[in-house]
């Protein structure tokens, strides 16, 4: 629907409603992905995506995280950190830690978030992922420093 008739207001309204109101998680997931792909620039979509990030279904929360990370990068970091702090599913929490480290490594809160999570994460997998994120940040920093250094004569 979103691909063929994305310019029709009734299609947008239907997809927007389906994202939060449909009983079927597969329909909510498909609608959420369509919103992120086709209508992410509309103001009501970001609110809907944020609501979907707290859905009971972990697959819906995971899809919302992807939309947040890829479509709302300018404001996603703080939201993703808050979602990670409250996430009860360790698989999704691990995904959140990974997304935060890879997508927003330059944000000021990321280093502290990864350090805290590496020390106090909810599971071994979450802590390990946070430590890997810290290693990534260190390597990235070293590579940046090496590239900025003047060449030896």
What count of helical segments does DSSP give?
8
Counting helices, strands and paired strands, the structural category is mainly alpha
Number of strands: 0
> Whole-number average pLDDT?
86
Strand content: under 5%
Shape: globular
Q: What is the helix/strand order?
A: HHHHHHHH
Uncertain runs with pLDDT below 50, 5 residues or more? none
Helix coverage percent of residues? over 70%
How large is the radius of gyration? Answer: 18 Å
Distance between the termini: 61 Å
Give a quick account of the main beta sheet: strands, pairing sense, barrel closure. none
Question: What report would you give on this structure?
Answer:
The structure is a single chain. The chain has 153 residues and is mainly α. The chain has eight helices and no strands. The chain has helices at 9-21, 25-38, 43-52, 58-71, 73-86, 90-103, 108-120, 124-148. Helix 4 runs antiparallel to helix 5, helix 5 (73-86) packs antiparallel against helix 6 (90-103) and helix 6 runs parallel beside helix 8. The longest helix is centred in the C-terminal third of the chain and has 25 residues, at 124-148. The radius of gyration is 18 Å and the shape is globular.
